């Protein structure tokens, strides 16, 4: 049993279960957006743990699957709006990949809300906070991710 | 025409074209099928002499996708000077599609290839026959009329061909390879138009996520991860497959369902929009897992999202090689 699972079980026993959500944010827009939400003192759930990546095109589907395998309750992937990518077309390439990944997760029977894709720019602190609120609500409704067991 | 006669006709076509190509020195070698060493199989064979042409056969067990032998990962067909040989390749529809798709991905050069097109009449589902016969050993399998005759250890059974055909072959609409100017010899399909409503998937698609999870789990649970499906797939030509990577180790090597799930999901991810639906992966599976459902769904995803069918047009890029500002993004989360 992985460390994350143990922790989430521990917190389950306490009062209310709080989901753990891993967020892959692109360096140029979404990470700055999250930063803006922070410095503007916008309240949003503390369930997300942020991983900063250079671009949403850097996100390999492995990252997302591995996160689910390791017991994260939800995965958020966020990048620049189409057309705003720092590397011109990274997010457009990523979008096709995400589209197929989303369809495949559905095919294999993972709940569609478990993995969320979104766009948010550096100036959209309140949008970022709103979307994270929505994601957290969705994942709370789904409950803990217990489908996978890691045996090694 | 009954299956038996069709097979004879196809075999004759292969031999005639192969003999002609070799005689006129249009190709250096012919890549085709020959009789397998054990029942229920066929083998690939490379022929470079006219005398050997009679070794080429066609039956309903030629499940291997010969395009696999032309991709760079397999030592390519070269002469002593290290120059690529001109290859004539016996192509049923899916081999032709695989060749076209590989040329889209710049893996093979169609100029070095002659496609010997044949009108494929379906491949037998080996697993289904083995299940039918049970524990008994099969000695010989032949086609008589429209039936499959299985002879084995104190058993002789006649099975209707239509019922024991691969599911993929039942929905297949590209029986002969799509025609390419100057490359196709034999029987090829002019302007194949694929109209598919994916009605065979409707049943599965209406399931809830929980039911889908259970269904796929029961389907894949027995997988031992021997990677036979990867080895036989013409689209799997990476020098280092993601499951063999060990720096970092992405995924576990166990046969726990989590690891099986990951392998099959990422395999599907890599196949999306590329699978040509030859069904070789299901045919070689030693456990008899039928990957048809996943492969058909991949076809459906590529068709519905990007209006793309692999291996039809050598000019169109496949969706994962391109991008478009106007792509659909209904799956992206928006504010309420």
Give an overview of the whole structure:
- By secondary structure, chain A is of the alpha/beta class.
- Chain A has one domain: Rossmann fold (3-Layer(aba) Sandwich).
- Chain A is 43% helix and 15% strand.
- Chain A has five helices and four strands.
- Chain A has a four-stranded parallel beta sheet with strand order 2-1-3-4, sandwiched between helices.
- In chain A, helix 2 packs across helix 5.
- With 336 residues, chain B is α/β, with parallel strands linked by helices.
- Among the domains of chain B are: 39 residues, no CATH class; 123 residues, no CATH class.
- The mean pLDDT of chain B is 89.
- Chain B has a five-stranded mixed beta sheet. A three-stranded antiparallel beta sheet of chain B has the order 5-6-7, with no helix packed on it.
- Chain B is built from ten helices and nine strands.
- At the A-B interface, helix 3, helix 4, strand 4 and helix 5 of A face helix 6, helix 8, helix 10 and strand 9 of B.
- Strand 4 of chain A pairs parallel with strand 9 of chain B.
